Amino acid sequence: MSTTDEVRVPQPAEPVRLPASSRRPAAAGRRLLVYAVTVWAMVTVVFLLPRAVPGDPLGYYDNGLDSPLSPEYRAVLAARYHLDQPLVSQYRSYLGELLHGDLGESITARQPVSRLIRQRLPWTLLLVGTSLAVSSAVGFAAGVSAAWRRGGRTDRRLLTAMTVLHGVPEYALAVLVLLVLAARVPLFPAVGAYTPYMDSWGVLRKTVDVAYHLALPALALSLGLVGTKFLLVRNTTVSVLGQEYMLLARAKGLSERRLKYRHASRNVLLPFVTVLGLQVAFAAGGSLFVETVFGYPGLASLMLPAVQDLDFPLLEGCFLMLALLVLTVNLLLDLVYARLDPRVGAE
Fold first, then answer.
1. Where are the domains of the chain?
2. Which of 33, 195, 228, 336 is deepest in the core (most CB within 10 A)?
3. Residue 190, C-beta contacts closer than 8 angstroms, at least 6 positions apart
4. Which CATH class is domain 116-345?
5. Residues 12/15/16/21 CA torsion (nearest 10 deg)
């Protein structure tokens, strides 16, 4: 071999990478599989949670009657609600009924749980959805504006106010809003979701009346959610402002509005969507406290009596609806996140 000959070392072959478009269905399939496994785990927890509370559901039901249950009728009720079976058999019966879309019958109300939930769930969805939308819009806009004026008077005031709101629980905010805007200055109704006997009203008048009653509960829940969003958006925007592409965009002479909402805000969307998904669970839980304070006819009006009476089917149905709400919204936001960041969608 001559000295001019080169020894060629074989290089490892490059891994074959599929196009991003072909990887996305597989990624979506994995997300759906994770979602299905999570739903099964959640259903199991929903089944076990009421049964972890000490007590006998039929005993609570018996205490609320004028005359005690006869042993024969008590045995009939125990068989009807599968309370005479071992825990594993109860679980199998529960899963079988769920697969057929049957949530069972309330022990105390003696009505189908699905009917009771259909009457109350829309009010909870309206409250949670409105509060998330309002807090997201206010928190995002205020966070970007405060970061743009960082160190100024507006920034300091907003930062102080949002930090205080971030540390106050929802029920305390609800009581404060109720005392100020319904008791001391009666601008809004203190309880309820609509005016009684409004069946003869027109659609527009009914809509205005529902929004009028929704104002205070939505305000209380929004105040409890806006602090976290504001702090995230402000801190993320401050870190973005020092990036090279922002300095280059400013050097090109772009307007402040374009810099703020087309360059800086776009990079805040990814962490903002992540926090929004996490806040859905807090909003669903906080709505129960807010509904209780304002006498709002949502799921809280079903869950509190169900806890007191140890109504297994009604508790399971309410917990299931709240858990499915949180999981479904997080799945949708996960898909939105993958849309905003193609790198995530291609994983």
1. 22-99, 116-345
2. 228
3. 178, 182, 183, 216, 294, 295
4. mainly alpha
5. -160
* Tokens 């109720």, residue located: 178
* Separation of alpha carbons 181 and 216, rounded Å: 8
| Tokens, residue 198 | 């409004």
Name the CA dihedral angle for 201, 203, 209, 213, rounded to a multiple of 10 degrees.
130
The reply to whether the predicted model has a pTM over 0.85 is no
- Chain segment 254-275, per-residue pLDDT in tens: 666 677 666 667 778 888 888 8
Give the Cα separation of 193 and 216 in Å (integer). 10
**Using one digit for the tens of pLDDT, what is the confidence trace for 28-65?**
677 778 888 888 998 999 899 888 878 778 876 767 66
Q: How far apart are CA 100 and CA 98, in angstroms?
A: 5
Q: How far apart are CA 71 and CA 56, in angstroms?
A: 15
